[in-house]
Amino acid sequence: MRMAKGLTIYESGESLDQFALIKSMQKGTASNGKPFLTLLFQDKTGELEAKLWDASLEDEKTYAPQTIVKIQGDVQTYRGRMQLRLRSIRPVAEGDGVTVRDFLETAPLSEEEMASEMTQFIFEMRNPAIQRITRHLMKKHNKAFLTYPAATRNHHEFVSGLAYHVVSMLRIAKSLADLYPSLDRDLLYAGILLHDLGKVTELSGPVATEYTTTGQLIGHINLMVTEIAEAAKELEIEGEEVVVLQHLVLSHHGKGEWGSPKPPLVKEAEILHYIDNLDAKMNMMDRALDRAKPGEFTERVFALENRAFYKPTFSRSLEKTTT
Fold first, then answer.
1. Tens digit of pLDDT for each residue in 284-311?
2. What's the rounded Cα separation, in Å, for the pair 35 and 38?
3. Are 109 and 164 spatial neighbours (Cβ–Cβ below 8 Å)?
4. What is the spatial distance between Cα 36 and Cα 58, in angstroms, rounded to a whole number?
5. Residue 50 in contact with residue 85, Cβ under 8 Å?
6. Half-sphere exposure for 51 (CA within 13 Å, toward CB)
7. Which residues pair with 17 in a beta bridge?
8. Is 2 helix (H, G, I), strand (E, B) or coil?
9. Which of 6, 9, 14, 70 is nearest to 39 (CA)?
10. How many CB atoms within 10 Å of residue 156?
11. CB of 302 closer than 8 Å to CB of 87
């Protein structure tokens, strides 16, 4: 089937007529008391939000997450963001010739490439305690780790986004360790590999990703701190490395208001936080700028203080590069 040009390629004022996957659905009540649904559509290019007004209970069931639909409407700008004003929507029908995979954005590297690169970083570790714990946990969650997104929104929220985020962080860490030899590479690499590994339990999976009950009640940070302790016990490893590795996971969000139970109190923990923050923000900016034309501003990026970023006409970053 011939696919449309992509949800995020449309400009304000254009009409849209194509298939999309419902990523999320939220119920709401309008000022007139009538119910509506906020639908987030996705395809390989990104996401586009729309409101379904006067929604019924049947609509809630019909337009649940992971449902493929045919949508028609007009793209418009609202408060600095593109939205779709729906004119019609229907579920996919037999003969439409589309599958869920047609709408999933994926990492620019293959699972095999990312797995190989991460394995090499573990192989280079010299501290046996850190290496064994890291290898044990990566092997335990390998399948999910290579397919899950890094988040439900904001950054690396695509298939294999979690692994791609980690590989990017490892590359940054290697460059920083070359520049600052006092950094403990083993500890920093292990912290990067494990810091978000708990998300394979916190999140529901790579398609229409939501937070699990365990994820909402406990969270990926606490989940992984517990798993590090359990792995150390199973492998009969004792020593300071276990506690310090747990600290890197506990503190990688940097501040309590950002979700860290502890602030970074070890040098490698501080650097891990900076690398994590840098890679997440770069991904958010790159994806927003990819949808903007040279000489224009992006949509507002809520997770970056709701700023809109300008795309210079002369910038070398406009040139597409391959990894």
1. 999 889 888 899 999 888 889 999 999 9
2. 10
3. yes
4. 12
5. yes
6. 12
7. 72
8. coil
9. 70
10. 23
11. no
Q: 3-class DSSP state for residue 26? A: strand
Distance (Å, whole) CA 14 – CA 4: 13
C-alpha 176/C-alpha 170 separation (Å) is: 10
Closest by CA to 38, choosing from 47, 46, 26, is 26
* Type and span of the H or E element at 78: strand 68-78
d(CA 44, CA 235): 42
Pick out the chain residues at pLDDT < 70: 1-5, 316-323
Tally of residues, the chain: 323
Q: What is the DSSP string of 174-190?
A: HHHHHH-TTS-HHHHHH
The residues pairing with 38 across neighbouring beta strands, listed in sequence order, are: 26, 51
Q: How far apart are CA 81 and CA 85, in angstroms?
A: 13
CA proximity to 152, closest of 113, 210, 192: 210
* pTM (two decimals): 0.83
The dihedral built from the CA positions of residue 240, 242, 247 and 248, taken in this order, carries a sign that is: positive
Cβ 7 vs Cβ 46: under 8 Å: yes
CB 24, CB 84: distance < 8 Å: no
Q: Give the separation between CA 186 and CA 188, rounded to whole angstroms.
A: 6
User: If you ran DSSP here, which 8-state letter would residue 211 be given?
Assistant: B
CA distance 266 to 178: 19
Q: Which two tokens stand for residue 170?
A: 């490892």
Tokens of 67: 């449902």
Tokens of 133: 């714990």
Supply 118's token pair.
Answer: 């991460």
Token pair in block for residue 298: 């992006």
